[in-house]
Amino acid sequence: MRRFACFVAAALFACVIMDAQNIRFDQARKIWLITSEHSSYAMGVGPSGELQHLYWGAPLWRIEDVPAAQTAHDISSFDPHEMIENEEYPGWGGPRYYEPALKITRADGDRDLVLHYVDHRIESNELTVRLRDIHDPIEAVLHYRMDPATGILERFSVVENRTKQALRIESAQSATWYMPPGDGYRLSYLSGRWAAETQLNREPIHEGMKVIESRLGHTGHNFNPWFAIDRGDADEAHGHVWFGALAWSGNWRISVEQTPYRQVRVTGGMNTFDFSYTLKPGESLRTPSFYGGFSERGFGEASRLLDDLERADIAPHGAKARLRPVLYNSWEATEFNVSEAGQKALAEKAAKLGVELFVVDDGWFGKRNNDHAGLGDWFVNRQKFPNGLKPLIDYVNSLGMDFGLWVEPEMVNPDSDLYRAHPDWVMNFPGRPRSELRNQLVLNLARDDVRDYIFNVLDKLASEYNIRYFKWDMNRTFAEPGWPEMAPDEQKEIWVQYVQNLYDILARLRGKHPKLEIESCSGGGGRIDLGILRYVDEFWTSDNTEAFDRLRIQEGFSQAYAARFMSAWVTDVPNMNGRSTSLSYRFLVALQGALGVGANLNNWSAEDTTLATRLIGTYKQIRETVQNGNLYRLRSPREHDTSANEYVAKDGSQAVLFAFRHSQQYNLPAPLIELQGLDERATYRVESIDNKLAGGPREASGAWLMQHGLQVVLKDDFDATAVIVRKSD
Ligand code: GLA
User: How far apart are the first and last CA of the chain?
Assistant: First the structure.
């Protein structure tokens, strides 16, 4: 906060207008500086009126230091000055050839768009800057909101057609970000596929463009809308890192571009692929939020900042959200073979373990005995549940657990009453094949009648039954995304309207059922993003619950999303990839997120049950730290035989170290693990949850734990432990 004090003094002296605590505007030179304790962001209006990016990085306190926006010189007739100036939100017009933020076609075919500053407004911590085309009133209103706690800037634009003719938007991006001029940058991003999501990649940025995206209709397993850029030298604890995440659950795109002029620019928003959106006179389009932040302390701090923002400002209930309960789900154990008696038997066993939320997965409705039929028929299967779900739910509640239910509302099997009644409700191009994936078709949620139907189905379920939680699934990608009821030139709006209606249903459901919680699942981690996070309490991370594979999936997930949102189940072995690890190893992997058990409890031995009960008890002692604390990724499973993560409670009272050894060789001990984030001067009580701390439990100072480190005893293949570190009074 001292930085602000300096700033205020300097600002008054220099007669700079102070409009809000963290947004300053220098009227004379037309510069804005947005500042928090973690970062600053500056832009200004150039001599001809274009908005230029001026700074993004570590906090600044003196707006006078930021030079006014200048007009650059043409380098040649091939290198116009427009390409060299860092335009904040460039239209496609004039001699501009990099990725535009906005590209339009007018009704008369004119496609030139040059955006200049008109005016701006500062309200509380939000700055809006209005840009307008130099020729006609096509406007882009840019929104900037910096979160004072994390320095993360939320940006989006609203494109408005104030002309008298319709226009077609071909690209409306949320934001363009610029790194400081230079080269040697490195890009981190998350890629993957079904059952192998969120794999972390790091690669140099060279001239040209790298695109990560989804054309699949949903966020997708293949890429996640998150990026981080460093100067090639950052690690978990050191170095400057610029990072961003897009809040959109449909087709999205992030392009990372290094131009010949040493600019590194990131442009992101709704995917331009197959995109077209018509704005009639007076209409507008709001683009999704693109969040961007800066860390001076490496990738670790970058993800901690993002975690804080998600927990406080994005996810439902903010800081008041309850801790994620321990969940049981029998999907991997029973698949579609659910019944009242079978679920009751499992519920009884789950309750004894300490489970708090019992979820019935797929198979409870319609003629759903396998994945060939029933999707769309959201009424209880009376063969499996002769008296409806109430007896089971009452029983689950009587055992002290909440009840949750799996739904996949956006889908329909052709073999369903719903499809027989409404074959026109799926997205389709008339007369052409309707590609089935997992024997199902996608309902056209963009249609308001379909949207309302789905809302009513879910609202009825949530009203009729004591349902605390929906696992909302979505098990295929889009194909033949036709919307025949619309005019031909408006059909492509399906990509946008689908997502908006999805958000609308979720918002209405939550509004009407304030205690209802929702998990976003899409065949595993196919819909994990900050857009859906506004409406859901957790993500289903991956259908791959194999513990060793999970280490890397979870490492990638943790770059962009807090542990509280990461469902992590303990399931039976051998798992989907044939590997077997011990129950304790599987638990230790899953204790690092929102813990669930997905095993067939009927097959567990008495020892398994005892161990699971103990570890669920341990989880309840550490979950505040895991779910709401600070994560330090100490050793990566991509790079080390022994990987380790540490979670530190926000109040510093507790830390938990998790360590995993892949395969011991030559009888060498596991390496010393140096902790982070402790108080050097404090004394801590250190204890392994399973006696795997060399020398046993002890007291040690924060200095010792961070400088010397802890020696854990991991001797076997797939060996693991957790060490709880408690601050002594
Ligand atoms: C998807 C989900 C699984 C399970 C099945 C049910 O694959 O990711 O967890 O719910 O559907 O069909």
Answer: 29
Q: What is the pLDDT of residue 21?
A: 61
Contact criterion met (CB below 8 Å) for 346 and 403:
no
Q: Which residues have any ligand 1 atom within 6 Å of their CB? A: 331, 361-362, 406, 473, 475, 521, 523-524, 540, 543
Cα(87) to ligand 1 centroid in Å equals 45
**Cβ atoms within 10 Å of 386's Cβ, excluding its own:** 11
Which residue's alpha carbon is at the smallest distance from atom 11 of ligand 1?
Answer: 523
Cα separation, 191 vs 556, in Å, equals 9
Which regions of the chain are under pLDDT 50?
Answer: 1-20
pLDDT in tens, 215-225: 999 999 999 99
Give the tens place of pLDDT for each residue, 398-431: 999 999 999 999 999 999 999 999 999 999 999 9
CA distance 305 to 297: 11
What separation in Å is there between the alpha carbon of 335 and the centre of ligand 1?
Answer: 9
Best residue among 332, 359, 410, 475 to mutate for probing ligand 1, ranked by most atoms within 8 Å of CB: 475
Burial of 383 (0-12, 13-18, 19+ CB in 10 A): exposed
Residues involved in catalysis:
473, 543
665, burial (CB in 10 Å: exposed 0-12, middle 13-18, buried 19+): exposed
Quick check: 541 and 569 in contact, CB under 8 A?
Answer: no
Measuring from atom 1 of ligand 1, which residue has the nearest CA? 523
Predicted TM-score (pTM) above 0.85: yes
CA–CA separation, 536 vs 11, rounded Å?
A: 42
Nearest alpha carbon, ligand 1 atom 7: 523
> Which residue among 221, 406, 477, 541 has the greatest number of ligand 1 atoms within 8 angstroms of its CB, and so is best to mutate?
406
Q: How far apart are CA 481 and CA 501, in angstroms?
A: 15
What domains can be seen in the chain, in order of their start residue? 3-314 (2.70.98.60), 318-540 (3.20.20.70), 634-727 (2.60.40.1180)
Residue whose Cα lies nearest atom 8 of ligand 1: it is 523
| Cα 210 → chain centroid | 20
Q: Ligand 1, atom 6: nearest CA belongs to which residue?
A: 362
Q: How far is the CA of 586 from the centre of ligand 1 (A)?
A: 20
Ligand 1 center from residue 473 Cα (angstroms): 7
Please give the pLDDT value at position 576: 85
Contacts of 407 (CB under 8 A, 6+ apart): 378, 458, 461, 470, 471, 472, 473
CB atoms within 10 A of CB 31: 23
332 CA to middle of ligand 1, Å?
A: 9
Out of 361, 407, 471, 522, give the residue to mutate to test ligand 1, the one with the largest number of ligand atoms within 8 Å of its CB.
361
Q: Say if residues 221 and 198 touch (Cβ distance below 8 Å).
A: no
Q: Six-digit token pair at 358?
A: 């019992």
pLDDT of residue 16: 41
Q: Which pair of tokens denotes residue 38?
A: 């973690």
- Label residue 410 exposed, middle or buried (CB < 10 Å: 0-12, 13-18, 19+): buried
Count of C-beta atoms within a 10 Å radius of residue 65: 11
Span 467-510, pLDDT tens digits: 999 999 999 999 999 999 999 999 999 999 999 999 999 999 99
Distance CA 61, CA 21 (A): 12
Cα 676 from Cα 632, distance rounded (Å): 7
How far, in Å, CA of 80 to CA of 302, rounded? 36
pLDDT in tens, 332-389: 889 999 999 999 999 999 999 999 999 999 999 999 999 999 999 999 999 999 999 9
